[in-house]
Every structure is written in structure tokens, then in C-alpha cells.
Amino acid sequence: MELFRQRIEDLKAEINKHNKAYYEDDNPTISDFEYDELFRELKKLEEMYPQYATADSPTQKVGSKTSEKFKEIKHKYRLYSLDNSNNFGDLKHWYERIQKEYPSEKIEVVSELKIDGLACALSYQNGKLITGATRGDGIVGEIITDNIRQIKNIPQQLKDKINLEVRGEVYMPVSSFEKLNEKQRETDGKEFANPRNAAAGSLRQDNAEITGERDLRFFAYAAVFPDNNSPKTHFEILELLKKEGFTVNENAKLHQSIQGVEKYCNDWEFERHNLDYATDGVVVKINDVSKQNELGYTARAPKWATAFKFPPEEIETELLDVELSVGKTGALTPVAILTPVKLAGTIVKRASLHNFDEIQRLGINIGDKVIIKKAAEIIPKVIKKSDNSGDHGVFETPQNCPVCSTKLIKPEGEVVLYCPNSDTCPAQIKGKIEYWCSKEGMDIDGLGEAIVDDAVDKGIIRDIADIYTLTEADLMKLDLIKEKSAQNLLKSIEESKTRSLKRFITSLSIKLVGKETAELITNEFPTLEKIMSAKTEELTAIDGVGEKVAQSVVGFFEKEDNKKLIEKLLQNGVNPQNNDNQLISDKFKNLTFVITGTLSKPRADFEAQIKSLGGKISSSVSKKTSYVLCGENPGSKFDKASSLGVIILNEDEFKKLAEEE
Questions:
Q1: What is the residue extent of each domain of the chain?
Q2: pLDDT tens-place string over residues 551-561
Q3: 28-68, pLDDT tens digit by residue?
Q4: Are 583 and 506 in contact (CB under 8 A)?
Q5: Which range among 23-27, 254-258, 477-481 shows the weakest confidence by mean pLDDT?
């Protein structure tokens, strides 16, 4: 039984991680198919062992938390997710379950293509657009009205003066996505992984003008009628939306039975690749609105609708080459270069090989026929050697760095090969400089990959500190820089000198240290000097910082070259500020809080208050936890706190604690 409990906990943690990547970071790390497999396993285990099911499980929630960039809005009408039918057996079972509720009636259903975009809710009063919001977690979303107004096929004023909340999907056409990435390459901007990411990233811009420059579209697929004047069927709702000026997917179809749905799904599994938008399945809904209301909802999804997901595609192609790339930390990554093939609607030329252990496991080499797969426009990967392939042996694992020829190393317990020549390897130097300038790093706008490559190759920049000695004359020596862009770049460089200490530590490319770990460290050690002198045991005392991370940090700052680099940065005017969370007092100094459950305000508000009083936030309960702040439906963190004897506070108790003299 303990084995199943642990598996449930592991699945919840993994799914939550992928939810964050998809909903918050707009950067999914696995395919929809792989995600659905994890989700289905968790749901099945929770059904088998209900004693381990908790209210904070992903099976009970929709989406993920909102971004701090936008104001939050509590949805007047909750936005739900959809349960999946992964095969026709699941689809028929769903329909038969509903048919049992209405044994003597004909159950009509509507099929619509499932658009792979960003779900939004648009509120209209007297026919006028008032608010546009993201789905968020279904209960609380983000207000993005100014950005929504930039989308040309969203009506600002309806034809009738009615009150209405419209639900739909913001998406980017595939052709526009390809043009956007081409433009990003030309201007050294970051390329988007797929149309869904491009749509989400474009819609959630601080500057609405950028949203307006991107070709975003909107498909309306549902509506809520506050005045109880809803049409009687879902298909009639779609017709009404069309009449009011919305774009409704023209491929929606009414069926008299589930057999019609099966044919619809079969037809579109392949035909969808001829469309100019990404779709990964079919949404099937009961047509009768009164039946929808009677059937109701589970904790996260309507019982009267389901999403049939198309199976992931696989195709054979030839492995032409294995490209070896060296990252900023020296990690060596193999990438498959393929004979171009059309897969899931796009031409695929490259695919992930992960690492050299994976190449050995697959037993593949240049010249082999291989099978690649790709689901929902995620980066494709090689999954196996084709049965049609000849014997070309196995690709030989390199012994030396392909860029600087230094002998590669493989740290104990890791599968990745590294080039240890961090000081002079051109690939690592360029990678570190690019990361330092990135949005996640010091956010130096205009210093992208192509410009960095040119500057390093010409000896104008040798390390990150050299960025702060650049002159307009230096920049004009670079191929892609013009006078105006040189002036803008120098201004951006100057602005970056006073970025936060958290960003500074993140940007140093310390192995195993990302922005979350950098925040944990800078919360505990509020100055650069204290971080540089921190001992391993002091770092591991921070909740969330493990032994390997601590050793990596200490090792980085012990290295003489790194000390000289930081001294050079400071001499060149870089002065990191620990200004992310203004400290009001140290009342909560040395106290660690865990927040769980639904609270009266956004969780970020409580986190900011705790940090402003000198406290720390942790995502998990342990013996080091000082207090657990609990809202409604707290779940497993409440149970763990109780078992460990950790003090549990409700909102009123927390308020008193924070206000105590």
C-alpha cells in the first residue's frame, strides 16, 4: 500500500511540474499524449486507493496558477477543463453512460475540432466588450483586456445589446507561426516551440502593441447567458455566436449518435494537417443544454463533454547526421539531423536524441532508418530504429569536445557528458554570454545569439564583464548592428547594471542553479559578499537547497577565475540590488512558511507579505517548516504538518501573527 501512496505522490509532483511548464511558462516539456498517460495513471490509482486522493491533486484542478504580471480576476462563472477519451472504447463508454441517464431519448451530440491555443473568457455588457481574461486555474484568471482588444476577429461591440460571457481559444495560424519564427531568427529573438506557445506568449505581453503585431485569432466555442436566455441547444449557441460577429469553427458538426462522431474523428485524424491551425483532437458535447445542466460537473470537468485525443504520429525517416552542441555549462547534447519528412502538419528536419546513453540504448547510427514521433507540435524525438534499416553499427560516443577538443568528462551519477574547459571553450563562452543577456537572465534587449557569436568571434567580447565596456564604436564593428540599434543596446546594457541580486546569481550560469534556487539563496544571503563566502553546510540549511547544489555554488565561488570575473563586473559598474522583496522588518527571520488550500486573496500576496517580514517560503512541509498557512481544502500538506507537529494557522491567526508587536 505504501508503494501505491508513494506513486500517487510522485505522479502529482510530476504532473504539477508539467502543468507549470504548460500553463505558466508556456513551454511544455512533454507531449500531450505523454501528459495524458501520467494523468490517466494518477486518476486510476486515486480511484483504486481513495484514501490517498487529496483535494490538491491535479485530477481535481484546472490549469495552473496565474502570473504575477497581470491583475487577477475571479471568474463569475467557473471555467472547467475536459476529461479525455483516448480511444473509441472510451468515447463509447462516455456516451453509453449518458444514454443510461436518458434511456428513452435520442441523445444528440456536437463534434468540434479541439484547437490548441489559450482558453479565454470574454465578458460583454449590453453588447460591449468589458473584460478579457485567461482561464488560469478555472476559478481565478488574469485580466488581459487590452491585449484581447488587439485580436482583430474579436468583436468589440456585438450586433445585439445583450449580456454574454463568451468562451473560446486564442490561437496563432501555423503559417503566421512560421513567419514569426523566421522574424525571430532574423532579429536574434527566441524562437517559439509551437503555435500554442507562440499564441500564449504573444497574448500575455506587458505591451499590448506587441500582441497587436502578432497574428492572433479567436475561435468561440461556448457562452454563458447571465440573463437565463440561453438557446436550447449547443449548436444553436454556436449559430448565435456566429450571428453576433464571432468566428466559430466551421467544422463543428451535429450528430444523431456516437457512430457519427467516430467517423468524424477518423476523417479529421489525417485531414487536420491541411488546416492552418493546430488541433490535437475533437471535443464532443451533448447538444441539449438542459441535459448539460442536469448532468453537471465533476471537480474539474463537465460530465456532458469529453475530448477525443488523436494518437501521436510516428513516421520513418533517415538519420543523416548527429549534431553535437555544447551548452553554457559544458553539457554536450546530441541532435538528430534527418531527411525532411512531414509529421503532424510540419516539416521535421531535426529531432532530440537526449543523451549518448539513449543513443546506445536505441542502437542507432548515421545512415539508419529511424522512427520519430511528435505529438501536439512538441519537438520530435527519435523513438526507435526502423525494422527496415540496415546494420550501420552504433554511433560512437565522442571522447573530446567538438568545439575545443578538450577531453570530455561524465560526473558520477549523471548521464550527460561535459566539456570541463569552461574558461576558453568558445561554445561555453558564447552560451554564458547569451544566457546572461536573456530575458531570464539580466534581460539585455538586443544582444541575441547572432550578435554574441559575431562579437566573440571578432574578440570584442571575451566574457560577460566585457559587455559593460562596450562602446558605440565597438558595436558598429558588428555585422548586424546599425547606429540606432547600437544606441538602444547601450541603453539596455546600462539599465541591466542594477538588476536584482537574484537575477545576477541566476545569470552566472552556475551549474544546477536556476532562478528558483537563486531566489532561495538570495532570500537567505541578501548580499553578494555573503553568498560568495557561504559554506556548504550553510547552503544546505536552506530548505530546498540540496548537497549537490550547495557544492556547485561553493565550488563556483572558490574558483579564482570566477572571483576575478565578478570583481571585473563590479569594477565595470554592475551593482546587483536585492530589491525583489522590500524588507519591512525581520519579524519572520529564520521562519519558513508553507501555504496550502484556497485563501481569500491570491497566494502571491501572502508570499510577498511573508518575504517582506523576513520569512521564507517552501513548497513542501518538513521538520524545518515553522508554520503552515491553511485555506479551504488544504490537502496532503495539512496532513503532513499535523503528523510532524508543525503549527497550522488559518488566515485570521496568520494576520495576528504578522501584526504582533
A1: 2-60, 72-309, 313-385, 426-496, 501-571, 592-659
A2: 999 999 999 99
A3: 566 666 667 777 787 778 777 777 777 667 776 555 544 45
A4: no
A5: 23-27
Considering the domain delimited by 313-385, tell me its CATH architecture.
Beta Barrel (2.40)
Please spell the DSSP secondary structure of 489-551, one letter per residue: HHHHHHHHTT-BHHHHHHHTT-TT--HHHHHHHHHHS-SHHHHHT--HHHHHTSTT--HHHHH
Q: Does domain 72-309 have CATH number 3.30.470.30?
A: yes
Residue 437's SS3 state is helix
Q: What angle do CA 330, 335, 337 make, to 5 degrees?
A: 145
Q: Domain 501-571 - what CATH class?
A: mainly alpha
CA distance 281 to 375: 11
**Angle, helices 426-437/449-457, rounded to nearest 10 degrees:** 140
Cα distance between residue 302 and residue 281, in whole Å: 17
Separate counts of helices (H) and strands (E) for the chain: 24, 20
Q: What is the CA radius of gyration of the chain?
A: 27
- What's the CATH fold of domain 592-659? Rossmann fold (3.40.50)
Cell of 369: 532508418
d(CA 556, CA 328): 14
Query: What are the angstrom distances between the C-alpha of 185 and each of 99, 172, 211, 232?
Result: 53, 18, 18, 49
Rounded percentage of the chain residues whose pLDDT exceeds 90:
50
Within a 13 Å sphere around the CA of 518, how many CA atoms are in the beta-carbon half? 20
Question: Considering the domain 426-496 in this protein, what is its CATH number?
Answer: 1.10.150.20
At residue 23, the pLDDT reads: 55
3-state secondary structure of 272: helix
Q: How far apart are CA 226 and CA 163, in angstroms?
A: 7
CATH of domain 2-60: 1.10.287.610
- For 47-114, the three-class secondary structure string (H helix, E strand, C coil) is HHCHHHCCCCCHHHCCCCCCCCCCCEEECCCCCCCCCEECCHHHHHHHHHHHHHHCCCCCCCEEEEEE
- pLDDT of 356 above 50: yes
C-alpha cell at 458: 571578432
Matching residue, cell 543513443: 359
The catalytic residues are 114
Whether residue 636 contacts residue 54, with contact meaning beta carbons closer than 8 Å, is answered with yes
The CA distance from 33 to 300, in Å, is 19
| Run of H or E residues at 487 | helix 483-496
In this prediction, residue 302 carries a pLDDT of: 93
Same CATH topology for 313-385 and 426-496?
Answer: no
Residue recorded with cell 534527418: 338
The answer to which of 49-53, 302-306, 513-517 has the lowest mean pLDDT is: 49-53
Split at pLDDT 50, 70, 90, the class of 282 is very high
- pLDDT value of position 615: 86
Element (H, E) at 347: strand 346-352
- 281 pLDDT higher than 50: yes
Calpha distance 418→558 (Å, rounded): 20
pLDDT at residue 320, as a whole number: 95
Mean confidence (pLDDT) of the chain: 87
CA dist 133 and 154 (Å) reads 13
Distance (Å, whole) CA 613 – CA 75: 31
Contact status, residue 456 vs residue 432, Cβ threshold 8 Å: no
The residue among 559 and 634 whose pLDDT is bigger is 559
The whole-number pLDDT of residue 579 equals: 55
pLDDT band at 376 (very low <50, low <70, confident <90, very high): very low
Which carries the bigger pLDDT value, residue 189 or residue 308? 308
- Report the predicted TM-score, pTM, of the whole model to 2 decimal places: 0.50
C-beta of residue 86 within 8 angstroms of C-beta of residue 74: no
